[in-house]
User: What shape does this take?
Amino acid sequence: DQQVKQNSPSLSVQEGRISILNCDYTNSMFDYFLWYKKYPAEGPTFLISISSIKDKNEDGRFTVFLNKSAKHLSLHIVPSQPGDSAVYFCAASVGGGDYKLSFGAGTTVTVRA
Amino acid sequence: ETGVTQSPTHLIKTRGQQVTLRCSSQSGHNTVSWYQQALGQGPQFIFQYYREEENGRGNFPPRFSGLQFPNYSSELNVNALELDDSALYLCASSSRRAYNEQFFGPGTRLTVL
Assistant: This one.
């Protein structure tokens, strides 16, 4: 049962523009959400997280928005850079980021020069 | 600060064999989690170890087992390998004190023939 879904397998964006990645979840017990970035032949790297008590968290070019009523979160990358080309995973947990993570299938982002 | 390391990088086994994968956690981390990432999917939680005790398990059969050692390094053992066990196996470490994200290693690519 896939509790975290990323419905867009891929996203292509021009350098300097905004990248918007979406993620939906079904388990209402999830209270902590994370975004990871993965390059080929490397493990996922933590990008940004948000607790369910917030609806927005910002870190430099990365902003995560959480809509609990819709069970939806999104990651905004502004401006997009060529180094942002990677696979992005949305993950969710109950009780904090160091517990069991449930991942989406990932979205491959390609930033065009 | 040393990150999460895994060995071996790649491994080829035949169906029915047994395999042991190893993980060294990041310095200061006392929790290790294992994930299986099949091609085109997000990582799936196998189990987590905290202070040498299993602390949560995903939907994997008992032939998947693990250990955590006093230095917090860990092993994942898989018995009676099946073709579907072919995947990238990721280890992640975290610190319960930080209530924070998990840090992933580069993974072990297992191929079962």
DSSP finds no helices and eleven strands in chain B. Chain B has a mean pLDDT of 93.
